[in-house]
Design goal:
Low-confidence stretches: 1-34
Protein name: Sensor of ECF-type sigma factor
Mean pLDDT: 77
Keywords: Signal
Strand content: under 5%
Order of helices and strands: HHHHHH
Helix content: over 70%
Number of helices: 6
Radius of gyration: 22 Å
Distance between the termini: 23 Å
Number of strands: 0
Structural class: mainly alpha
């Protein structure tokens, strides 16, 4: 029954990744190559952010399906697991968007820094690392109340494998994970 439920969830998530899956494609009108290029260029520029969101949404959907399968989460576990996972990933992302971006900027200019400025950057970097570690420990502590230690370690393994597959497919030019 769990396997059937997981397959259904995966199918539903994959189907929902394609917002145009239920639309019938109309026959294309005959346009010149030049008109097509102009239309495609304008459409590409206008939809760049939308495409990134769809891509991020698709990756997130594939991640949910992959982790649910790899961890063999029950429905009850999944209901508690995903809010914790999403909350901590958002904290991690926000930390990267604020602190890490500022540190990277400093690293690009570090050759012009005085020793005092470099020391301040180093202190900021150490603070950032401590915040990341504290977030990860808090994440694991919260997960322990929801899933077993074995599933927590399976999650770490699944994250590694998912990211590895995603990177491999990115490098090969594919758009989806298998």
């Amino acid at each position: 029954m769990k396997t059937l439920l997981n397959l259904f969830l995966i199918s539903l998530l994959l189907w929902s990744c394609n917002p145009k899956a239920d639309q019938v494609k109309a026959p294309a009108e005959k346009n010149t190559v030049e008109q097509n290029d102009k239309e495609n260029s304008a459409e590409d520029k206008g939809n760049e952010n939308e495409q990134k969101e769809l891509s991020d949404d698709k990756i997130q959907s594939l991640k949910v399906a992959y982790f649910t399968k790899e961890l063999n989460l029950t429905t009850k576990e999944a209901e508690k697991f995903w809010p914790i996972y999403n909350k901590h990933n958002q904290i991690y992302k926000d930390l990267g968007d604020t602190e890490w971006d500022a540190i990277k900027k400093g690293l690009r200019e570090v050759d012009t820094y005085s020793d005092e400025e470099a020391e301040q950057l180093l202190l900021r970097y150490k603070k950032y690392l401590n915040q990341r570690l504290a977030n990860r420990i808090s994440f694991i502590d919260e997960l322990e109340s929801v899933i077993s230690p074995k599933k927590i370690m399976l999650l770490k393994h699944a994250e590694y494998n998912f990211n590895k597959k995603l990177l491999k497919q990115y490098r090969s030019g594919e758009a989806t994970t298998k």
